[in-house]
């Protein structure tokens, strides 16, 4: 009877950990989407909402770490259960950093929106589309246990790096042009940088998903 109670507690703890991770992933993607909408649609209120709601993601990261450590101490999980706890805690860290980048985008968006309309903001849209695609695939690889999908993210991230390099080169060239747009162009450069970093963090999640499903560490493997 005692063993039955322990198993039930363990199953509940694992379930709660997964639910918190999925909620954290949903909130993180929502923050990123709203941050980019605020930039593209010149919506300062959306930017403010992203900045305010980031604390929910921070709190969930703390909760995931607490629940994960409690599971490790109380139940001493092994094999796939141990991998699930470890990867969930690492995933929470990466999601929190992605949400931080969404906040950075929102803050830059607020500054851009307060000035004259900047047509170059559309240059960030392809970066966001690809970064969000990589993030969605990474989250799917985690929830579905799809190691093949997790392994497919690095080439997409290389494409994101190339797009990022092109955008930075174009914006840097425009900084040399006369006019009073330099500050806003610099804000947009930081937006592009955040989107490139989001791709890197999403790849981290995909790598952890591969480790979770196949016990294989691909972090430093060559393609």
Report the mean per-residue pLDDT as an integer: 94
Given the structure, what is the number of helices? 7
Give the biggest beta sheet.
none
**What Rg, in angstroms, do the CA atoms define?**
20 Å
Q: Write down the domain tally.
A: 1
Instruction: Please count the beta strands (DSSP E, at least 2 residues each).
Output: 0
CATH level-4 homologous superfamily: Phosphate transport system protein phou homolog 2, domain 2
Give the overall shape, derived from the CA principal axes.
elongated
Helix content: over 70%
Q: Would you identify the CATH architecture?
A: Up-down Bundle
The H-and-E topology, N to C, reads as: HHHHHHH
CATH topology: Methane Monooxygenase Hydroxylase, Chain G, domain 1
Furnish the topology, listing elements before pairings:
Blueprint: H1 2-41, H2 44-75, H3 79-113, H4 125-144, H5 147-151, H6 153-175, H7 182-214
Brief sketch in words of this structure:
The chain is elongated. The protein has helices at residues 2-41, 44-75, 79-113, 125-144, 147-151, 153-175, 182-214.
């Amino acid at each position: 009877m005692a063993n039955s109670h322990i198993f039930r507690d363990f199953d509940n703890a694992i379930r709660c950990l997964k639910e918190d991770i999925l909620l954290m992933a949903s909130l993180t993607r929502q923050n990123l989407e709203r941050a980019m909408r605020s930039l593209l649609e010149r919506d300062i209120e959306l930017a403010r909402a992203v900045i305010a709601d980031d604390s929910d993601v921070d709190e969930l990261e703390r909760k995931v770490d607490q629940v994960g450590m409690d599971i490790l101490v109380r139940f001493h999980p092994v094999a796939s259960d141990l991998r699930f706890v470890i990867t969930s805690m690492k995933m929470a860290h990466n999601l929190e950093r992605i949400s931080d980048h969404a906040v950075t985008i929102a803050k830059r968006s607020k500054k851009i929106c307060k000035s004259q309309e900047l047509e170059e903001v559309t240059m960030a849209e392809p970066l966001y589309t690809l970064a969000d695609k990589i993030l969605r695939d990474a989250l799917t690889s985690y929830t579905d246990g799809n190691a093949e999908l997790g392994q497919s993210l690095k080439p997409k991230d290389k494409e994101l790096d190339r797009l990022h390099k092109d955008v930075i080169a174009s914006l840097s060239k425009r900084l040399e042009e006369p006019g009073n747009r330099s500050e806003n162009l610099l804000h947009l450069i930081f937006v592009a940088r955040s989107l490139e970093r989001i791709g890197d963090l999403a790849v981290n999640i995909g790598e952890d998903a591969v480790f979770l499903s196949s016990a294989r560490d691909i972090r430093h493997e060559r393609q």
